[in-house]
Amino acid sequence: MTANTGETTLDAFHRGDFFVVQPARGGHRAGMDAMMLAAAVPGGFAGRLADLGAGAGAAGLAVASRCPAARVVLVERSPQMAAFARETIAHAQNGRVAGRAEVLEADVTLAGKARVAAGLEDSAFDFAIMNPPFNEARDRPTPAALKRDAHVMEPDLFERWVRTAAAIVKPSGAVALIARPQSIAAILVALSGRFGGCRIVPVLPRATEAAIRIIIRGTRGSRAGLAIEPPLVLHGETGHGHAPRADRVCNGRESLFGD
Questions:
Q1: Angstrom distances, CA of residue 241 to CA of 138, 199, 250
Q2: Does residue 110 register a pLDDT over 50?
Q3: Cα separation of the two ends of the chain
Q4: pLDDT given for residue 251 in this prediction
Q5: Cα–Cα distance for residue pair 207/157, rounded to 1 Å
Q6: Beta strand pairing status for 213-220 and 195-204?
Q7: CA 157 to mean position of chain CA atoms
Q8: 115 pLDDT tier (thresholds 50, 70, 90)
Q9: From 3.30.160.20, 3.40.50.450, 1.10.540.10, 3.40.50.150, which CATH number describes the 2-250 domain?
Q10: Distance of CA 217 to the CA centre of its chain
Q11: What is the mean pLDDT of residues 159-180?
């Protein structure tokens, strides 16, 4: 369900379990990527989670919706998008999650003392999730500056985002991220030495088609090996409706990794 007021929309997620206030145009609009990323968090998660580059807060609030003991911090550097996140938390229909969510206006790529001063302290979280900009600069450019900032990769993006995640997540805490398959090498390099036991779920439009996304989850300090999980297939052989498992995952009824 979407309610449009011209400048903003109010969008229902998890079959109306929570709502997100988003820009109607010109800014990043959350959708299925955010829901799949949130589903990478175990259903019984009960700690503190950082949603890095949160935008209007869809992924972080999806975790709070599915995990009733989770507390989430929506980390966003754009003042405009942070304002949407605050409006989202304050919305009357989000009372079930609002008390467990807050917004931190900060740049995820800060390092060292600057990062700590911005509010991203060492070992302050049990889990970090991220949906970083993953379009390459040579892709078709996005004309709106606010949307372009949310979509286009900067140099060494994964290295800088994962570095922050490794700093703010406690030992044995976890990270999960969603990206395009062509970024897998850069992601694995960034994770190396920081997060191990990585599990990768390819996301396929249909069972016979190539992956369009990968979702990776790893554990800080783990020495376990890499595993490629069975794919998440979004649609059946025909039609555009979600396949049953994809529907459960994207609507907060099932964890992506079965936990």
A1: 32, 27, 12
A2: yes
A3: 28
A4: 97
A5: 30
A6: antiparallel
A7: 15
A8: very high
A9: 3.40.50.150
A10: 11
A11: 98
